[in-house]
Give the backbone structure.
Amino acid sequence: MVGSLKKLLLILLLFITPFSSLLPRIIGTVTVSPPAIARKAQPFSPFEQSLPSTEGGVLWESIHELSGDITTPPVVAYLTSAEDEQVVFLGTEVGLALIAVSTGEISWFHNTPGAVLSITVVSDLTGDSVNEVFLTHDSQLFNNTELLSGLDGSLLWSFRPTQNCWVDGLGYTSQETKSWSSLVLDDISSDGQPDFLITSYNAAFALEGSTGKLLWSYFASDDLWSSALLDDIDNDGFSDVALGSQDGYLFALSARDGSLLWQVLATQPESTVIDLVGTMWFDRSVFNVLTIPDVSSDGKQDLLITNENGYCIIYDAMNGESLSRVKVYSRTGEVPPESYYGSQDFYNVVAYPLSSSSYPGAILTVGRSSVTFGNSSFTLLTLDGDELSIEWTSTSLPSADIRGYAAFEAEDLTGNYTKLITPTGTENENNIREIEVRSLENNSIVAIWEIPVFCSSFSENFNFMENSFTYPFRGNYALLVDDFNGTSSPEVLIYLTNAGLFALDGDTGEELWRQTLVQKVSMEAFTDVNKDGTIDLLRKKLFYPESFQQDYYLYSELAVLSGTTGELLWNFSLPIKELAQIGGGFSDYIFTEDLTGDNVSDLWVVAQEGDEIEGLLDNASKIYLLDGTTGAVVWEKFATDPSFVYSKEQLRITSVATIHDQNGDNVTDLLVACERSIVYCMSGLTGEPLWNLSREVPSFFPNYRSFIPWASTIINAGNILGNETEDFIFIGDDSKVRMVDSDNFSTVFWEWSLSDYWVNYRSYLFQRDITENVSCLVFTANRPESSHSIILNLTSGEPLLIAEGDLTQQIYKLFVVDFNYDGFKDHILFKPYKTAGLDAGIYIIDSVTGSLLSYYSLHKPQYDTNTWIFEQFFRAGVTDFFDVIDDMDNDAIPELILGYSIGRYNEDEENQGMVIEIISPGTFKAEMIKRFEIVKEEIDQFSRPPLYIAPFVKNLGDISGDGLSDILVTLMDYNYDFVSSIVSLDPNLEKDEEDFSLLWKQLELPIFDALDPTKLTGLLNSKLVCTDYFGRVIPVDNAFEVVINSFEVIKKATGNYLISWETTADSVISEVFLNGLLVAITTESEYQLFLGNEAYNISIVVIDPYGIKAYTQLFYKVDHFNSLFVVWIIIGVVLVSYFGLKIIFKVKKKEDLTQFGPEINLPR
């Protein structure tokens, strides 16, 4: 019986065998989606040069000034072994810059896929007499350890540190890890060149200097933040290495082979009580590891460390014995939980050995933590033998950002002292950053140096989430460099976070040069300046003088970039002192016809002096005419001859408008309004005064024309009243708005005012619909208890709408599209948050009657709408929260489009989602008719998740060439990182239908400004040209794509399939997704999949070295069984039937013989 059952089991296995090949996926139909492209925008460079893109993500990268804030301490070094040229290396969020110390010019900029975390200069390795530079950065896709040529920043070799790491969807796999620090070692490989060491995650890797080949590795129990080069403590002929870890250990390793020489616990864990959990213990890290002169009298350098407990400790480098310790900083507030590199509460103390005749062996420390409410604490330590002692401590200084000092010997009336440069960077009311100069001996303030800074920190406004990343070494630095100004003292370099690098005279603090950060910029299509067939771009560097206020900003620089190469064709700014006089930037610019005879449009630029500037007739308010080809100043003029006026206010410009030719030279002229209600007319060609309007001067005033008792803001409204000349709007300092005939400026067609309100003449929006010859003006009217925005019909002077809230609280789009078939384009009001009289939502307003046509509420009851975030976007000048697309519901009315992200309050929640909504305004209460999920919405059942409206939505038209509208939308992902996606919307998809093939491109950086592709020509025709919050111009290459070449079965019996692909870019990283889950990260262009019996969506994502993504998808499913399956079923049935019946017969036969067998004669 047992044997028969074995046979039956065998037969069953034989029967199952045919089916085993079907347990994996059997393909019935395969559908390959059209190639899709996505982009991860990262590093595009910053200074005055451009590089052609050879790797496919961007058409070109424009390098102009510094881009990205620093993420590692600056390094001052000599460029050559002759030590005849000093340079400074700045590592930023997007690359490494080499700057000449004597001139401030950027020699080269090396783009990196991640933020630079360490910089090490090494002697010449290539024979060009120029020292090289070794760096690490935090990319986890592309090789994050690089050796660069010091001559031009070109890559010599790179290394990819890998370890087994947990990745969602992949589990524990070999992945690249962030590299924290770097060192130059002795020649341990004996090839005649020094070698290198890096720390990455919890490992140290020794690399061969000539090739980057791995020599040895050492693995610790936690992250290794810092490293230092020791003397040879194991007597093998090579200098050794000290390392500090996150879990508080200090190590010494043999540089020759990485063996452990000694290890000590240098930082004690800390405890805190957590509700519902109890007492928890957290590791505290060793942060700084430095070598100091021998204090243990063994002939070897010793070690100084700082730790997260606030201690400075000296260790004997030979054996790890603790020699002295002192607490230099005490945390205030609650003890935070375990911190990590980049968390805002990453508690760290940095130590700086100083040179001082008063204090030999002096060490200055600074402690900083967000728990201390942004204050810094300084402590001066001295060494007496091997004993550390505190000389003085200064706490609660008004800075959270000091990361480095400079000190040198100086002399004053009282004698010699050590001058300590403390880059507090405190900002006063006039955009001045203060640098404290102190005496090291008594910590007294000797002087205050002032640096005018006209930069608006754009990225800082979006670092608002609890898990936002902060680089521990980001901050203010003071660095000593050799004297290049002809004085006896060294000069000082000051780096101020979110501002830039400034060179100051070491004696006086006078500024010698500056390299400021490029941050908030906007772009405009200009003209084909260099006649190469592609339109060139006007790039405007913005400065917000009153923090961030979206309706008031200045242009600190104007520049023209080649649309073909990104090359800087010209730029225009003013010397820093003149820039300070006009408040940090130009108030306006106006395109004019070609006035210089080179067939290129020129520009008038307006410099408007600030009200707080004093000094009689020392006036900075001017009009400049710039040559559009070169940017050269053709002329610069005051509004009139200064000798004609008796007060400075009569020359202080408030606004400028064009006017038709007034002097018969066939050139448009200018009206210039100044304070005291004076209006001057200037020749547009020469800048010479033609005539004026005034209320204060007598009739014999030169070129006097007529009396106008109001003139603060002048707007040329065009000929909208039907007469023969232009009509002008005057927003007066008497809080009235008037329409005036330009024939004699005495005919007032209408005037408007609102009782008890004063009109903000600086806050307005004017727009004209040329096709219908109608215009509208939106402005703010205020009174102490309230503000309102008013839309005026400029033909009648009657208000169309009076809405609660000023222009900084809502967004108006005028003359958008015709929503009600009356032949006139209507207006849209976007109200981001509710006020007393107006709910949050989108309002469509009839441009003829001012009546409300349709309304869509932003409120969603299942979410908690974070209205406060809108202020962050507004203050950064973001206004494109929605856009309009063609009709998608067949009612002949265009639709609205907006997006939103789903957030989470804490790390425990699983909320996520990136959604686009199509809104139909065909009824009074607009309705959502379609909804597309870029990231599928998932809501924690116990959560009421926060809702974040997309801060940027723009209809780009059909730039992908697929016949669909392409929408650029900026949203936040699960980790609160901004992602900008281009989505091709298919109107045939049903509401809530999810189709990931809609995503065409993606940029993993926030994009808040993009040019209209229809206005671009040549190489840029139908391309996306946008800017990010690092101030970089990004022209995305449509041709960058990835295509699946094949999908084939390798071995059906194991469910093993091979997918291969190709891309137009070189040096890419590929990611493979299966049903939205990451299953592989690879440098290859093929991958083996093991698939079961279900439907699949395979996505191939290719990322180029700039971080740009391109992707495509393959959908497939089992539709039917194949012929092989049928054959195996038949064979299985036959086998089971034959052998099964045979066994059953045999079993039954045996049972019958037992029960009914013949009688047997048994012995009696």
About this structure: The chain has a mean pLDDT of 81. DSSP finds four helices and 85 strands in the chain. Helices lie at 2-20, 576-581, 868-875, 1123-1156. Residues 715 and 729 are 5 Å apart (CA to CA).
